[in-house]
Design brief:
The protein is α+β, with helices and mostly antiparallel strands and about 675 residues long. Helices cover about 60% and strands about 5% of the residues. A hairpin with a 5-residue loop joins strand 4 and strand 5. Helix 2 crosses helix 12. The chain is elongated and about 85 Å long. The relative contact order is 0.17.
Length: about 675
């Protein structure tokens, strides 16, 4: 009788688990490297600690990309290349994911995912250090300086001055080698971050309950969103210092000739990534307390899948109509969102006459708080109400349409372009030369804008205004004897006029409305981000998540991350009206048609976002196929019914054998 009661209690409270699971999961759930797995560190093996470490890595890795975006206009000036070349550099880190993203998604799902992520970060660190290398090879710029302790040149380019450029020195240009280094650094960066994006999120999703995934996703997205902001803020900070921080070039950071200390931020990010990557190596294959389905999946087969089975697995994904629509919509919208995001600092510089440092600051800080609040709010609402898939997809469509209206409004507001006096429009370009300055020997090598006495007429440089001298008064540059400058009445004067250094005053108050509209649009759009992630992960079987994200990464790299810099770079160059020209070669763009730039940038983004909405509507009509968005208890209950005795998945093997012996005895 006693034995029968004892047996009944055992059968009621425990469930038998295969020996393989207990023995393997006992090691697979421990923190550490190799045999070094001390007990005191095991309390760190939980989803919250992983989330923090994963997000910090995401912040720093994301900062690398936006830091490059923040300094790209400076690099264009420093090494004299076009925006299309910048686009080629930025797509380099998406060529490598085309090669390996699918493989990492397929094999990485069964691998030790935290160690794969950490190993990839070491490659990102290498790309950070490599990106700063051109400065240590070529040193600071001197080709844009008109004041130099090393070169005997006039401080400014004047009419009838010796403005000749030594083209022999130009032959030794660092453009091609520097661009090649940036390209290689960007290319290997793509190898590094692929594992992070492909298997990092599925690892978190596999180790928490489905109903808690929205909260973890919202926290993850909210924290990682600081990455782009950090990159822009860091670039703003670094660009306030001259390329050689210990040298005074003789003009401020608001001057178009200013070359900021672009190389410092790459070194800072590399060091920080090195520090944060070490803990990622220590996380286990599966976290203690993870759902039973995850433990069973790990215990079932710890070997990597076979390569010959990949085509069949890929074909299964292709037949998933919802996943296909998700990928196509993401492809179109990522082209638009990233294209706008990358060229936004350049747009702010040209449209609202912000310095490179200020443009990076506003690009990084714009709506960051609103976006974080939106993501957290969206995740909390989904966690509380657990809406059906149809409601999630309907809301995705709503926020897409709202974002389009925000872009449309910003396309209609802006500032008038500077009035370039004495110029003509020829073949979409501004011709700076006229009868008055034809004999001045002016060049387009250096952009140093000056403003006439009418406070409206801007000239490309003192030379194009016909100036022959300068009078430094209280730190302000006043150029004298300017025979080609207009007077306050708007006519060429019979007497000689003076002009002031810098742009004429911009009577435009539209920058603040632009920032407010942009921030509010991003707030609304960010509330749908968690729902979009849930739809993506739940439209495939749990064991297919990593492979699906890997396939998605390959397609996005080929058709989104590679095309958008080329598309937006070409549109931006199309809006250029004055190019740098030196020794018969074209360099970076000095001046844009601000109206054309505004319509090209916003119009392209609206069209691409609209294309994504069409496929989100298709997902809406198929969304009833998606079930169990938040529940994973059913699979665990099925596992619990397989045996008569219950043994916790992570129970000590000796204790398990004792319980089995007890049942046998009974």
């Amino acid at each position: 009788m006693h034995n029968n009661v004892k047996s009944s209690n055992l059968n009621h409270n425990f469930t038998l688990v295969p020996d393989k699971e207990v023995s393997e999961n006992g090691e697979d759930t421990k923190c550490g490297i190799g045999r070094c797995k001390p007990n005191w560190i095991q309390k760190l093996a939980n989803p919250k600690i992983y989330l923090v470490n994963f997000c910090i890595l995401g912040v720093l890795q994301g900062a690398y990309f936006t830091y490059f975006v923040g300094v790209v206009t400076t690099l264009e000036k420093r090494y004299a290349f076009e925006s299309k070349v910048s686009g080629v550099i930025m797509i380099a880190d998406n060529i490598s994911p085309i090669i390996i993203s699918l493989l990492i998604g397929y094999f990485g799902g069964k691998a030790h995912r935290p160690r794969w992520i950490a190993s990839g970060m070491l490659i990102v660190i290498l790309s950070c250090f490599l990106s700063s290398l051109p400065y240590f090879i070529y040193g600071p710029a001197t080709h844009l300086l008109t004041k130099s302790e090393l070169l005997e040149k006039p401080k400014h380019e004047f009419c009838n001055s010796v403005n000749r450029i030594d083209c022999e020195d130009a032959k030794l240009s660092a453009t091609i080698p520097a661009v090649s280094i940036f390209f290689v650094a960007s290319f290997i960066n793509g190898f590094g971050y692929t594992a992070f994006y492909t298997i990092g999120t599925p690892y978190l999703d596999d180790n928490v309950k489905k109903k808690n995934s929205p909260l973890y996703f919202s926290a993850m997205f909210a924290l990682r969103i600081f990455g782009p902001s950090l990159g822009f803020l860091l670039s703003s900070f670094c660009l306030r210092y001259y390329e050689n921080p210990f040298y005074d070039p003789g003009f401020s950071h608001n001057d178009p000739r200013w070359i900021g200390a672009w190389w410092i931020g790459f070194l800072i990010l590399g060091v920080l990534l090195l520090v944060v990557s070490i803990p990622m190596f220590m996380f286990p294959r599966v976290l203690p307390g993870s759902p039973e389905s995850t433990k069973q999946e790990i215990a079932k087969d710890t070997k990597l899948p076979k390569f010959k089975d990949m085509p069949a697995a890929l074909m299964k994904l292709i037949k998933n109509k919802i996943l296909v629509c998700v990928i196509i919509a993401a492809t179109l919208q990522i082209n638009g969102h990233l294209g706008y995001f990358v060229f936004m600092p350049k747009y702010m510089e040209s449209q609202y006459r912000q310095s490179a440092s200020s443009a990076s600051l506003f690009s990084g800080s714009t709506s960051i708080i609103a976006m974080v609040i939106g993501i957290l709010l969206g995740g909390a609402v989904i966690r509380k109400f657990q809406p059906r898939a149809r409601y999630l997809t309907a809301y995705m469509i709503f926020v897409d349409i709202f974002a389009m209206f925000g872009l449309l409004i910003n396309m209609l507001i802006g500032c008038s372009p500077p009035t370039m006096s004495g110029t003509t429009q020829i073949n979409k370009q501004i011709e700076l030369y006229n009868e008055c300055n034809a004999n001045c020997g002016c060049t387009r090598h250096i952009f140093e804008p000056v403003c006439g006495s009418d406070n409206q007429s801007t000239f490309f440089s003192p030379c194009f205004a016909g100036c022959t001298g300068i009078n430094d008064t209280l730190g302000s540059n006043i150029f004298t004897n300017c025979s080609c400058a207009y007077n306050s009445s708007g006519y060429l004067p019979p007497q000689i006029e003076n002009v002031n250094g810098g742009y004429c005053f911009l009577d435009c108050n539209m920058f603040l409305p632009y920032i407010i509209i942009l921030s509010f649009s991003k707030f609304i759009a960010s509330t749908g981000r968690v729902g979009s992630a849930i739809i993506t992960l739940r439209c495939v079987n749990p064991e297919e998540k990593s492979f699906a994200l890997g396939a998605m990464g390959t397609i996005l790299s080929a058709f989104a991350f590679i095309p958008y810099p080329l598309i937006y770079g070409a549109l931006t160059d199309e809006a250029c009206v004055v190019w740098e020209e030196s020794c018969g070669k074209t360099g970076n763009c000095w001046l844009y048609d601000t109206k054309k730039f505004r319509y090209y940038l916003h119009g392209a983004t609206i069209l691409l976002n609209g294309g994504g909405i069409i496929f989100h509507i298709a997902i809406f009509f198929m969304s009833d196929r998606l079930r169990d968005l938040y529940n994973d208890e059913e699979k665990e209950n099925e596992i619990n019914k397989e045996n008569d005795i219950a043994v916790p998945a992570l129970m000590n093997p000796e204790l398990k054998r004792s319980l089995i012996d007890m049942r046998t005895t009974v």
